[in-house]
Amino acid sequence: MWIAVAVICAGLVAFLLKYAFGTSGPNPFDIDTREPLKPLVTDKKEKNKVLKQGFLINKVPENLDAIIIGSGIGGLGLAVMLAKVGKRVLVLEQHDRAGGCCHTFTEKGFEFDVGIHYIGDLLEHKPFRCMLDQLTNGQLQWEPLENPFDQVVIGPADNRRVYPIYSGRDRFPQELKKCFPGEEKAIDEYMRLVKKAGRSVWLMVLLKIVPLPLAKFLVYTGLANRLSFFFKMASRSLTEVVNELTENEDLRAVFSYIFGTYGNMPKDASFSMHSLLVCHYLHGAWYPIGGASELGYHMIPIIEKAGGAVLVRAPVNRILFNDANEACGVSVIKGKEEVHVRAPMVISNAGIFNTYQKLLPKELQANPAIQKQLSMMKNGEGGLSIFLGLDGTKEELGLKADNYWIFTENNVDELVDSYLKGKREESAQSVPLLFVASPSAKDPTWESRSPGKSTLSLVSFANYEWFEEWKDDKVTNRGADYKEVKQAFIDSIVEVVMGVFPKINRDKIEYVDAGTPITNTHYIGAPRGEIYGADHGTARFSAELNATVRPQTPLKNLYLTGQDVFVCGFAGALAGALTCGSVILKRNLHLDAIALAKKTKNANNMKKEQ
Q1: Per CATH, which fold does 146-283+379-524 belong to?
Q2: Please, are residues 82 and 361 in contact by the beta-carbon 8 Å criterion?
Q3: pTM, 2 dp
């Protein structure tokens, strides 16, 4: 008996190693493709020649290897990886510019980012930085934020407490201990749990790239939970864990503050997901020099060089299948006509709900395996964004390259729950959570591009149902009643901002507008106005779900990429692209990125020694 068990275990280990370290396919990170840095292009017309190439049938390349639906970073990132191994890829975007949540827009002379506020883990020669350098051929530059990079603000004006959040594995807990004397044990234990859970995410990757029977074996034998602390802690809520660590309500809120970057209240959020975010920023935070549109601007030429294209104003209305129910192309709406584009592989970056519920024929939607995946996921919370264009420099307005997380009080779960369940008009008067950042203060090129002006991006959450009655109206003319509701949110939120930033007043505001959940549906295709894709509650991080929802769909030649495959946000969507690329190219691209990072670091060290 024991011999049989040993043989089975040995076979399992061998199989795992084969897929964990498999190298059968081509490697997009085989060589360092960084090029000498070129001058920053600030002319919008020049950039739009790359970012706004409209769909025409004569622009579609011949002999495509793959079609990717959606030009967010999960789609563009995967397209570049495939292009680097010689694949001809067509990326189709329904919006009028490429980039998804990495795009920018300009109103009244102010340029606004819609989704890139700060990125972590970008120290030189770290694997994530190395990967981004390769995806842009070294042309994307990053500016570090201030340290502290986040400020947690709790309480009303007459009892406001501000807690700075510093980067640095040692400095982060050290500074917290200065703010909360007597809580050293709680802070140390929090850090231990966060690091241990964050380091264990490797098995989440493995469950998505090994053959499904093996993934199921790891899940149903309980081995996944035994092998990975990430999965062991996944079912525990953030509130549950931090409440066991301390009785201090402010410290509980500070431990939990960054939940806004994935959209779940602490009582619903997985501690493991939270750990990934904390670990992501331990080494610091950065912002792309020149703004978020620099990402797409430097990635698209790599796709084109391999014979591919990125075309916008190209809404895909359905995925095409042959008689064997294999994906073989897409249908694009051009005017009042359908244009069919064929390829042997279709990859969706449109999210699991759009892909399965809108783009598949009804008979394929009914596939039991697809219905099981849909039953395991739910939509995330709707996003609310407010954009302020201000008269004045960052110095004149008291703005820095950092972020503010503003809470009306420290009982976060109770306040956010009440807000989201409340009536629209009442909730508009008291938004309990607000993220505030100044893209213009973070970008060192801003002053030369827009002298004497500044911008603020404000982000919170809102119920899709509060705005649903206007979803079918024309996006640029949804009527006076819709504008009135938006204005109620704008007014109350701007009051909060002016209370925290005393140098900003209404006379300084030259432009203001809000993007509601239905705005997100229109521009980024979010079914319920969510900004972080599928919900990131505790159920999302079970071993079973992660073995089930994977890049390879139940339908042959159809794949998923982006944040619904892995986790939300810029880094999460790119991890989804890496994971999807690993399945398609039959090699572990996560390990390839790590290997290249080590290789380039060693090469640089040798140069320094010489």
Answers
A1: Polyamine Oxidase; Chain A, domain 2 (3.90.660)
A2: no
A3: 0.95
